[in-house]
Specification:
Order of helices and strands: HHHHHHHHHHHH
Strand content: under 5%
Largest sheet: none
CATH topology: ABC transporter involved in vitamin B12 uptake, BtuC
Number of helices: 12
CATH class: Mainly Alpha
Helix content: over 70%
Radius of gyration: 19 Å
Low-confidence stretches: none
Length: 280
């Protein structure tokens, strides 16, 4: 069993990369005082727009740009309600998830007869997203959030927004950072891990990202650890499937989510969220 898990670890690390990007983005935006439940819809839309852009241009690079662009559109919609209109963030995020699921499913069904979703997407030559997600972005975000005046003011928006001028400006900036990271995650999911787009292909990664941010106590080291634990659970799932122990397939698929839920239940009562998180 140990050898099976060890063999599955590289695949688990790659498979959890879109989740890590979503976690990093959600951590930044929650540090500014916003709960964005719509990150699931953001990743789903970016996965579709990445495929559309890549197929139309036959370029993986433009596909990633299309994924980021799709995530930015969703972020703009969320920000218009949650930041500009000061609507309830939980309700807004939930509505965006439902809207994203409906729109992507409709577009997928309408275009399924064409060549866009039937043919495989252009292949990536080298995996540049993996080192960015696991090394470059965590270091860069840590330096920005905890070693710059911009990061100090952004974090203050989540703790005591009355002490910060132009709170909306910093929250829009945090939302843009999240859109960039989640857009990369969604694009990587459809262009790097899959051969195209499928309905609801994010499979709850946005919600898992929310739980990992809590588990990591809104710090990047904790976010990396939480995502690594999810990756280990995924490796166990792959190992059990390869071992053919006769366990039901759908039960094996649930292992990473059950592990995440158990960890979250164990730490949720012992963490302190940003004081103004979710406050309009």
């Amino acid at each position: 069993m140990f050898e099976l898990v060890a063999d599955a670890l590289p695949l688990a690390v790659v498979a959890s990369t879109p989740l890590l990007l979503a976690v990093e983005g959600e951590l930044v935006v929650q540090r500014s005082g916003i709960i964005n439940l719509g990150i699931e819809g953001m990743m789903l839309v970016s996965a579709m727009t990445a495929v559309l852009a890549a197929q139309l241009t036959k370029s993986v690079a433009i596909g990633f740009l299309g994924g980021v662009g799709g995530a930015l559109l969703v972020a703009a919609l969320f920000g218009a309600f949650a930041i500009a209109m000061r609507a309830d963030q939980i309700v807004t995020g939930t509505a965006i998830n439902l809207l994203a699921l409906g729109v992507t499913s409709f577009v997928y069904q309408e275009l399924q007869q064409g060549a866009i979703f039937v043919q495989s997407v252009p292949r990536m030559h080298g995996d540049f997203v993996l080192p960015l997600a696991w090394v470059v972005f965590p270091i860069a975000l840590a330096l920005v959030l905890w070693n710059t005046s911009f990061g100090l003011r952004l974090r203050a928006c989540g703790e005591n927004p009355t002490a910060v001028p132009h709170v909306a400006r910093y929250r829009w900036s945090a939302l843009a950072i999240e859109a960039f990271l989640a857009g990369l995650g969604g694009a990587y999911l459809s262009l790097g891990l899959s051969s195209g787009f499928a309905e609801n292909m994010t499979a709850g990664r946005g919600f898992i990202a929310l739980s990992i941010v809590i588990f990591g106590r809104w710090k990047l080291k904790g976010a990396l650890l939480g995502t690594a634990i999810f990756g280990l659970a995924a490796a166990l799932q792959y190992a059990l499937q390869a071992a053919s122990y006769g366990l039901p397939f759908h039960l094996l698929l649930a292992i990473p989510y059950v592990v995440t839920l158990l960890i979250l239940c164990g730490v949720a009562g012992r963490v302190r969220a940003p004081e103004s998180l979710g406050v309009r």
